[in-house]
Amino acid sequence: MAIPETTDPHSGRDRSWGDPALDASIRDGGANAVMLGCGEAYLGPFGVFLRATTVQIGLLSALPQLVGAVVQWWSAMAMDGCPSRLRRIRRSVFLQALVWLLLALIPVAMGHGVVTVWWVIALAAIHQAAGGFTVPVWNSLIGDVVPEEIRGRFFGVRNRVSGLSSFVALTGAGLVLHGFERFGVAAWGFMLIFAAAGAARLVSRYWLGLYRDPAWSVDAAQVFTFRQFMRRSPQSNFAKYVFYVGAVNLAVAFSAPYFALYMLRDLEFSYLEFTVVVSVATVTQFLMFRYWGELSDRFGNKKILNLCGWGVCGVPVLWIFSSHIMYLMVIQVVSGVIWAGFSLASNNFLFDAVSPPKRARCVAYQALVNGAAVLAGSLGGGFVAGRLPASFAVGEWTWSPQFTLPAIFLLSGMMRFVAAALMLHKFREVRAVESIRHRDLIYRVSQIRPIAGATFSLLTGSTRGGKVGGGELD
């Protein structure tokens, strides 16, 4: 895949990054995205195919992430005497590839049922553990490799390449499953796409080998424990950001595992229809990452979080109004625009808010908070889903949904709103950026063509011309 070029803000001319390590990072991101598109994106549908219970679907989403979060913490603690960050990353990536190859054997070697699902959950936990081992190390390494002045644009381009790769992999995997399902051998389709995920992770490992591996050391004065992190949280700007993102993740996890269940079980979508709906959000994010990256460099990540943090509150609520596939595709466009900004800004805020020696620990501590939040949210969503009444009455108004899961989506939106109202204003931007009003930022985003412009112009009522100058199912 060709590496995209960026624009020098001073000369206005296109140029490459000029650093082989950055080019390798972009290619590594693309290969990793193929693994996510062929593999992780279809673990939920795989659970449905294996006839997992609602609780197992929640555990398949949440338990591996909690395991990964705990391993992140351990990995960060073990980094202090690490001679080579890159060697650690490549070993863990190899283990992830091996797990996908083992998962590829399950569809044809084992039958449907609860026991098989537990094996899948166990392997998914190992996969996330290996990934968790790499996350603080990789964040520490990439933070040293990418210059601060191009960070937003670089990750915007990297995420754009990853988004395109994920879209191609997601679509291709969906078509494979659709084709095999028509012949009554969907198990072989899952085997093929999981094997492709493992192969893609091996390609990612190759590109990781071309990273630079700068010398690394930790001053004892920079070391702090999770207990100290929690104790300082009332005064820490970074901790307030962590707890806000954790609250959002809890609310997202309350509903996220059940979108696939809703489409495949309740709406009886085919794998092709499911893939189309998921892919719309993925391709929208691909189109938007570059623009959000430019905006974050110029106006700061907190301003984007302020805007998109309110936007994510409405995304799951939109699912309650219609189950028509065209309607779901439209709201997936909205979701893709909002989540592209939120994910890019929340990831980049960490690099701005934390000094390099503390970065690995802070990433690990944030992962612990997020892992606990995701587990609580997923289990809470599964528990509530099995106990919801058939109708809801508020005064004279009664809502009687055909299925119970849309009520979970509504509750998730309400939980996100509470998180934004209580916590979004508590942390601040940490670097000097240009000032911009929220309505002007909305206008700038609204003029991005082709997809985002039509969507945001409809939402904001904007009719002026111009454009910006130089997942997602939840």
Task: Describe it.
The chain has a single domain (19-213, 224-460), classed as Growth Hormone, Chain: A. It has 17 helices and four strands. It has helices at 20-38, 43-49, 54-78, 85-109, 114-145, 151-182, 186-208, 226-232, 237-255, 258-266, 271-299, 301-314, 325-353, 356-385, 405-423, 438-446, 451-460, and strands spanning 6-7, 14-15, 392-394, 397-399. A hairpin with a 2-residue loop joins strand 3 (392-394) and strand 4. The two termini are 29 Å apart.
Number of β-strand runs: 4
Level of helix content? over 70%
Corresponding CATH superfamily:
MFS general substrate transporter like domains
| CATH A-level architecture | Up-down Bundle
* Total count of domains: 1
CATH class bucket: Mainly Alpha
Radius of gyration, whole Å: 22 Å
What is the overall pLDDT average? 81
Q: How far apart, in Å, are the first and last alpha carbons?
A: 29 Å
Main β-sheet description: 2 strands, antiparallel
Gross geometry: globular
Tally of individual helices: 17
In a nutshell, what does this entry contain?
The protein is an all-alpha fold and 474 residues long.
Keywords:
two-stranded antiparallel sheet; disordered N terminus; Growth Hormone, Chain: A; 474 residues; 71% helix; mainly alpha; 4 strands; two-stranded antiparallel ribbon
What's the arrangement of secondary structure elements?
Blueprint: E1 6-7, E2 14-15, H1 20-38, H2 43-49, H3 54-78, H4 85-109, H5 114-145, H6 151-182, H7 186-208, H8 226-232, H9 237-255, H10 258-266, H11 271-299, H12 301-314, H13 325-353, H14 356-385, E3 392-394, E4 397-399, H15 405-423, H16 438-446, H17 451-460
